[in-house]
Specification:
With 458 residues, this protein is of the alpha/beta class. The protein has helices at 18-32, 49-61, 63-90, 98-105, 108-112, 115-131, 136-152, 154-173, 178-199, 226-246, 249-253, 256-270, 287-303, 310-345, 371-375, 387-390, 408-416, and strands at 39-41, 202-203, 274-275, 353-356, 358-359, 381-382, 395-397, 428-433, 439-443, 453-454. Helix content is 56%, strand content 7%. α6 packs antiparallel against α7 (136-152) and α9 (178-199) packs parallel to α12. The model has no long low-confidence stretch (mean pLDDT 94).
């Protein structure tokens, strides 16, 4: 119950892409009722579980309850899956890491709203906890769990399969051959990166090194979260000091949990963070930033067996209190922004096309990008909504329509402020920030770029 407090402490859940997910759950209802020409619901085997949860709960209880319940379930799956994984690796119920797991659960991935990945990763932790001992029976038990994770998102399943293969090989080869196995694994990642670069469009940035420690998960919005980053790094440093004090450094380094953690850090830095997969109009993005959440949980598992002193617990509690205090304050600000958007949209006639020109890209999580989607729920059409044109989600734009732009390039240009308005788009309204940070509603004209206005509400 305590773990779910951040899901209910504000008037709305502020979690980035969640607004787009619930908006598309509403579009699914319109499509089913025959009120959304040019849009269709397609069948797919992955990246769909969270959306199915939202849609089903939306039909039963409405949009507000659907968001609260779906996100709460995802949080519980992730936290207790991670806790089970930590317990399996450390050989004990490491309650002292629970405050850290709670911080990670409400960190960068959560506030980006990447709930398909988030839910899948949580299920994968359950699978890893089941299969950690490496017996055939345990692997068989983990297989159907991974099948569920696949329906949520494929990326965590691919990572989990790689980890399980490494565990199996490491235990069969013996400790003396672990170093060659690690070198071979690192080389395989380099080869994979080269192959991906030859086969498709990828992007790699040197800044990925920041994700190779897992600490960036608690760097959510702006500079004040550096306090949480420093605090968590200090807590982890204390844990590593205790671990090396209790065990010989060679024993720690030769352990499978340490090797998996190190290889994950290498992979996050070496592999591309953006990959355009075949059949999609939009690349799989933020791979490094997503996987840093899995890395952070692996660090918790590695440190779960270390002895802790009372001051360790106080330090963890203090970092967690500061982190969640920051989140409460910032989410309150974003909810006030959404209130202002709602008041303006309410003045429009029903079913108008609306886009947002307010951009908070100075924040690490741009909480305003998809806010207009939820604002439009049942009131207007979020014309720049990106999901139907990407071919990654079950709601697809199959033809030109009055509800959402059918071109992914057009949706991206609208979000960048460089889209030239066409006659067919009209009437089209735009939310923007004017003088003295006053929010205004503009009616766009054909042949004119929609524009974008940088604004940091924090």
């Amino acid at each position: 119950m305590v773990l779910l407090i951040p899901c209910f402490w504000q008037s709305r859940l502020q979690a980035g892409d969640l607004s787009s997910h619930i908006y598309n759950a509403w579009l699914a209802q319109l499509i089913s009722a025959g009120h959304a020409p040019g849009l269709a619901i397609v069948r797919q085997t992955t990246n769909v579980l969270f959306d199915l949860m939202l849609s089903g709960l939306f039909s039963l209880f409405g949009a507000e309850a659907a968001q609260r319940i779906s996100v709460s379930l995802a949080v519980l799956v992730l936290v207790w899956g991670a806790f089970a994984f930590v317990a399996a690796v450390s050989g004990r119920r490491a309650w002292h890491v629970l405050p850290i797991l709670a911080m990670l659960a409400y960190g960068w991935v959560f506030h980006m709203g990447l709930f398909g990945f988030y839910l899948s990763l949580g299920v994968c932790f359950w699978a890893l906890a089941l299969a950690w001992k490496g017996t055939p029976r345990r692997f068989a038990m983990a297989a159907p769990v991974l099948a569920i994770a696949w329906v949520a998102h494929a990326l965590p399943v691919a990572w989990t399969a790689s980890v399980l293969i490494y565990i199996w090989l490491a235990r069969r080869m013996g400790t003396r051959r672990h170093l060659p196995l690690m070198i071979a694994s690192a080389m395989a990642m380099v080869i994979l990166r080269v192959a991906l670069g030859t086969w498709t469009i990828i992007r790699w940035f040197p800044e990925q090194i920041a994700s190779a420690a897992g600490l960036d998960q608690v760097a959510v919005f702006d500079g004040k979260y550096r306090v949480a980053v420093v605090g968590l790094s200090a807590v982890w440093a204390l844990g590593f000091a205790s671990l090396f004090r209790e065990s010989k450094a060679r024993e720690v380094v030769s352990s499978i949990p340490f090797q998996i953690t190190l290889l994950m850090a290498i992979g996050i830095f070496v592999l591309p963070t953006t990959v355009l997969l075949p059949g999609y109009q939009h690349p799989l993005a933020y791979v490094a930033e997503r996987m840093s959440l899995a890395l952070a949980v692996c660090i918790c598992a590695l440190l779960g067996g270390a002895r802790t002193r009372v001051y360790h617990h106080y330090a963890m509690a203090l970092v967690a209190i500061v982190f969640f205090a920051f989140l409460f304050r910032d989410e309150s600000v974003f909810n006030s922004v959404e209130d202002r958007m709602l008041r303006l949209v309410a003045q429009l006639p029903a079913n108008q096309r609306v886009i947002s020109a307010i951009d908070a890209s100075a924040l690490r999580v741009n909480a305003l990008t998809h806010m207009i989607d939820r604002v439009c729920l049942g009131r207007c059409y979020s014309y720049a909504n990106y999901e139907p044109s990407t071919a990654q989600f079950r709601i697809r734009a199959v033809a030109e329509n009055p509800i959402v732009i059918d071109s992914h390039l057009g949706a991206e240009e609208m979000q960048r402020g460089s889209y030239l308005v066409n006659q067919r788009d009209l009437p089209l309204y735009e939310l923007n920030i004017g003088r003295n940070q006053r929010m205004v509603m503009l009616s766009l004209l054909p042949g004119v770029p929609n524009g974008i206005t940088p604004w940091n509400p924090l």
